[in-house]
From TrEMBL:
Response regulatory domain boundaries: 7-126
Name this polypeptide is given: Sigma-54 dependent transcriptional regulator
Alphabetized InterPro entries for the sequence: AAA+_ATPase (IPR003593), AAA_lid_NorR (IPR058031), CheY-like_superfamily (IPR011006), Homeodomain-like_sf (IPR009057), HTH_Fis (IPR002197), P-loop_NTPase (IPR027417), Sig_transdc_resp-reg_receiver (IPR001789), Sigma_54_int (IPR002078)
SUPFAM superfamilies hit by this protein: CheY-like, Homeodomain-like, P-loop containing nucleoside triphosphate hydrolases
Residues where 4-aspartylphosphate is found: D56
Pfam families: AAA_lid_14 (PF25601), HTH_8 (PF02954), Response_reg (PF00072), Sigma54_activat (PF00158)
Annotated CDD domains: AAA (cd00009), REC (cd00156)
Keyword tags: ATP-binding, DNA-binding, Nucleotide-binding, Phosphoprotein, Transcription, Transcription regulation
The organism's taxonomic lineage, starting at the top: Bacteria, Pseudomonadati, Bacteroidota, Cytophagia, Cytophagales
PROSITE patterns in the record: RESPONSE_REGULATORY, SIGMA54_INTERACT_2, SIGMA54_INTERACT_3, SIGMA54_INTERACT_4
Domain Sigma-54 factor interaction: start-end pairs: 156-385
Length: 456
């Protein structure tokens, strides 16, 4: 018969009891640990997690009141309030055994026991412990999922060759468990791609948990990511699961990894190498099973050269790398995205007949889009709200004109480029010629000569 994967601890000062209990239970469970000295409870509970503890009521010779067992039970529940404990009691102690259940014992078995009865009682406690764990895991997962689903999902739009390549990579790697690193400027769709990878993976019925590492303070990092046990620090009023544990079985998306301090990078490396976490305040390792997706808008490879990002951590993250090009490098996606967002917002603001004029579309395609797709999305939403006619015009978009790159009509006339550059520098330094000259790398006299030449 296949044994159940479970760890049972038996604490009794009578070696015969330990021996027979081990003999009976090892036919059912994979790990049986016996201990004759209850003073070892602290050590044991701080180093391992037990599914069920079988605990004797009396230890000191001549002691039959059962009080000792009750005290040890309270002690165990203080260390781990969720621990399942089955009391071992002599026939005369049944009244006290019932008392222990009020304190928090899961059940009791009476010595001498029938083997079937012992197995059945430990099984029931074991199943209870498993369902308690599952309930806690599901509760935390649910909390995160409801937050995640508060924001509606969007399609991923793109017809440029760069985006087609991205889609092909997503398709290829989604079903593997390979770690994926997504690089790209703000608003290029890194999170969207991470979600797409999760949705197309075999883990899609499990949670997708996002952690914005840029938003977590250094002090809360461990508790947020690895969890904590009750009493680990002043505010730790109860046990809490970390994001790694909640994501177990699913996908963990670590955003903004470029912002991590060296110290936190070291911690993350250990966790991703060993695939287990230690909750703050606990020495018990918790195994984790996650698919890891990381993202950043920082130049990670440069940070490695500057020794600001660990090379070993980068190579742990980048088994597969996806680079999302900035929107200005794929202007052919702009009409598609613009129409897509226009549809959404025209419906939302009940302006269904709204169209984009050709001049407006032209204008959008030439803009620099420093905030990428997110900026385009906001620009369209704002224009839809502000528009008073059936057609969105160039003037409905409040874009920063300085950031326009008329790429197709780019001017390669050196004189004109020089004239524009000088004009911009003078404007930027509010007419301060020394500063403008310095920025342009020119002497003041040369600058004046050129101002005269170009009639500025
Ligand atoms: N290809 C796309 N198709 C449709 N919507 C997109 C696309 N790319 C990005 N978006 C939208 O743009 C917004 C920003 O996307 P997302 O949050 O995925 O970007 P990000 O790269 O993770 O940004 P940040 O670096 O700021 O976290 C979202 O509302 C997203 O739905």
């Amino acid at each position: 018969m296949k044994k159940v994967k479970g760890k049972i601890l038996i604490i009794d000062d009578d070696p015969d009891v330990l021996h027979t209990a081990r003999f009976v239970l090892k036919t059912q469970f994979t790990d049986i640990i016996t201990e004759s000295d209850p003073n070892q409870i602290n050590y044991l509970l701080n180093h391992e997690r037990f599914d069920v503890i079988l605990l004797d009521m009396n230890y000191t010779i001549g002691e039959t009141s059962g009080r000792e067992g009750l005290n040890w039970l309270e002690h165990i529940l203080q260390i781990n309030p969720a621990q399942n404990v089955v009391m071992i009691t002599a026939y005369g102690d049944i009244k006290l055994a019932v008392e222990t259940m009020k304190v928090g014992a899961a059940d009791f078995v009476v010595k001498p026991w029938e083997n079937e009865k012992l197995i059945a009682t430990v099984y029931a406690a074991f199943n209870h412990s498993q369902s308690k764990k599952e309930v806690e895991r599901l509760r935390s997962k649910q909390e995160h999922l409801s937050k995640a689903y508060a924001t509606p999902e969007t399609e991923i739009i793109g017809n440029s060759s760069a985006m087609k390549e991205v889609f092909a990579t997503v398709k290829k790697v989604a079903r593997t468990d390979a770690n994926v690193l997504i690089l790209g400027e703000n608003g290029t769709g890194k999170e969207l791609i991470a979600k797409a990878l999760h949705q197309a993976s075999q883990r899609n019925h499990e949670a997708f948990i996002k952690v914005d590492l840029g938003a977590i303070s250094e002090t809360l990092f461990e508790s947020e990511l690895f969890g904590h046990v009750k009493g680990a620090f002043t505010d730790a009023k109860e046990d809490r699961l970390g994001r790694f544990e909640i994501a177990s079985g699913g996908t963990l998306f670590l955003d903004e990894i470029g912002n991590l301090s060296m110290q936190l990078q070291a911690k993350l490396l250990t966790v991703t190498q060993n695939r287990e976490v230690f909750k703050v305040g606990s020495n018990v390792p918790v195994p984790i099973d996650i698919r890891l997706i990381c993202a950043t808008n920082m130049p990670l490879y440069e940070l490695v050269v500057e020794k600001k990002f660990r090379e070993d951590l980068l190579y742990r993250f980048n088994t597969v790398e996806i680079r999302l090009p900035p929107l200005r490098e794929r202007p052919e996606d702009i009409p598609l995205l613009s129409e897509y967002f226009l549809d959404i917002y025209a419906a939302k603001y009940r302006k269904r007949n709204l169209k984009l004029s050709n001049t407006a579309m032209n204008y959008l395609q030439k803009y620099f889009w420093p905030g990428n797709v997110r900026e385009l999305q906001h620009a369209i939403e704002r224009a839809v709200i502000m528009s008073e006619e059936d057609e969105l015009k160039k003037t409905d978009f409040l874009l920063n004109d300085k950031k326009h790159v008329p790429s197709q009509e780019k001017n390669y006339n050196l004189d004109e480029v020089e004239r524009e550059t000088i004009k911009e520098a003078i404007e930027r330094h509010a007419g301060n010629m020394s500063r403008a000259a310095k920025e342009l790398g020119l002497g003041r006299t040369t600058l004046y000569r050129k101002i005269q030449k170009y009639g500025l």
